[in-house]
Amino acid sequence: MYRSQRLGLKYLTASTVMFGAMIVFGLLSSIYYIQPGFLLNIFNFSSAKIIHIDGLVIWLLMGFIGSVYWFVPQELEREVDGIGLAELLFWVFCAAVAVVVLVLIFVQYGAANQWSMWFINQGRKYVEAPRWAAVGIVVVAGVFAYNVIATTVKAGRTTGILTVLIADLIPLLVLYFDAFPQLTSMSQDLFWWWWLVHLWVEATWEVLIGCIMAWTLIHMVGASRRVVESWLYVQVALVLGTGILGLGHHYFWIGTPRYWFAIGGVFSAFEPLPLLGMVVHAVYDAGSRHLQAANRPAFFWTLAEAFGNFLGAGVFGFMMTLPQINMYSHGTQWTASHGHFAFWGAYGCGVIAVLYLALEKSRGCNGLDGRAWKWSFALLNLGILGMAGALLVAGIDQAFFERAVGGSTWNAYLAMQGRPWFIESMWARFVFGLVFAAGYALLVYDLLAIGKSQRAAVPQVTAAAGS
Amino acid sequence: MTPRTMVVTALLLGAFVAAAGAYGLLYCLSRLRDRRGLRIGSYLSYTALSVIAAMVIALTPLHAGWKVLIAASCIAYLMIPPVTWRYLTRLHRGEKKSHDPRFAKHADRHFADLFRRA
């Protein structure tokens, strides 16, 4: 195994830990909706939510970085250039994440001054990490991009997937600089902030996961590189074609000109089209292999990625994206429902697929299977479906009574919190959150155990054959 | 737009994309398995998709531009599964033997059957 692959495993492990932290703080966030006085003035909802959503970004980012460090040396058949620096930065990254989480738990917030921004909280959703940590993320992303590009240059050759990845890493890094401006106009601030949030999630991350899934298909089921790369080009063109200007659906109510209604609505309506193509591809591949693969967990998580992406981003997204609907649904639990399902489908499932693939190789197994992964697969997907469903009901109730009937007033907001459908949905979300957490616990157990008995059995069989 | 029509419109839009997904899924399964029931299921899903599109156009207070977009999407959804399928089949036609001989054998036989049927 290459050093880079060992580093990839470390990143994937750290990603799994952050996944757990995200679930813990997500569960905590859900309690405030059913017990509004919970931990009042000790650990408020806003702090729990910050760690929940920032944890989401970090676990996926670590999962992507780990996946790339895992695949790149296999792709180029050489060690990654600058691996020592990358290893050092992994520990720096983990330490920085730990410090930020501790600060967000114990300090939480500060006065509205430069000190707070640099050392406590930047105050911008999804990029709340204090500025020193944001600088650290730029350094990690920069070294990561250098590792991939320099290795490719030194290898003197490239592949289609690697070329797409390199082309993607540059905007991935550059867009993160949008986390830094200090604009006093809320409209201007949100205008640029969406460049970071939307263009990361619905453009550069889509391409990144596309590359990772392409490698996964090659290594998992021996898919032809020519086929995978051709499909990757088509998907990247479609996803970027619809996703970049799909940015407009975030510009509806922030003070931007009216033409964003048309741009955002039209391109958002196009966004489910490539997702349907992905479903067709997934069914084609799964059917042609009769749902059989040596690494069954990785195979099924890959399938879940295609379907989850379509349902979460496509169906749940299109329901609320046209401006006339979005005027009422924007910022309600409806958005949270779409966000939970789409992130899980588009990215979470993909990272878990790579985890199983990397474990198979690192533990020297020839395929993986068992019972625990099936239970964790079922519980995690049932949990997310239940949470997304409960949030959808709460969101529709909110859009109907608080926004459309109540006129979005403060009174309507408060009255909404006491409505039975809203409260019951919040309970349902909490219960399904527990189901999801149980699925995570089983996933961790399975990741620790799977394949170890198979590896132990190999020398015994060999010894028996020798005697 | 009244609160009720807002919710109905949103649910119809969600059902519209969900029906497109059901159509795509059943279309692929019918091509893979060559079963009449699946083929009929895919036709029914597309019929449901068209009916939902017609309901969005006729019953909801969306602006005319969005209704045109829904009608155009309805046609696009009809094309996507067969066009993607044909593209994937053509791509796999030139596929060399995969790394794992077990799967390669299955895949080759399966695709050979598909081409023969086509």
Topology, element by element:
The complex is a heterodimer of chains A (467) and B (118).
Chain A: H1 3-34, H2 45-76, H3 83-106, H4 114-119, H5 131-155, H6 160-176, H7 186-221, H8 225-243, H9 259-270, H10 272-288, H11 296-319, H12 323-329, H13 333-362, H14 372-405, H15 410-417, H16 420-449, H17 452-466
Helix pairs in contact in A: 1-2, 1-3, 1-16, 2-3, 2-5, 2-7, 2-13, 3-5, 5-6, 6-7, 7-8, 7-13, 10-11, 11-13, 13-14, 14-15, 14-16
Chain B: H1 3-33, H2 36-59, H3 64-93, H4 101-117
Helix pairs in contact in B: 1-2, 1-3, 2-3
In words, what does this structure look like?
Chain A is mostly helical and 467 residues long. Chain A is globular. Chain A has a domain at 1-182: Cytochrome c oxidase-like, subunit I domain (Cytochrome C Oxidase, Chain A), CATH 1.20.210. Chain A starts with a helix and ends with a helix. Chain A has helices at residues 3-34, 45-76, 83-106, 114-119, 131-155, 160-176, 186-221, 225-243, 259-270, 272-288, 296-319, 323-329, 333-362, 372-405, 410-417, 420-449, 452-466. Chain B starts with a helix and ends with a helix. Residues 96-118 of chain B have low confidence and may be disordered. Chain B is built from four helices and no strands. Chain B has 118 residues and is mostly helical. Chains A and B meet through helix 8, helix 9, helix 10, helix 11 and helix 12 of A and helix 1, helix 3 and helix 4 of B.
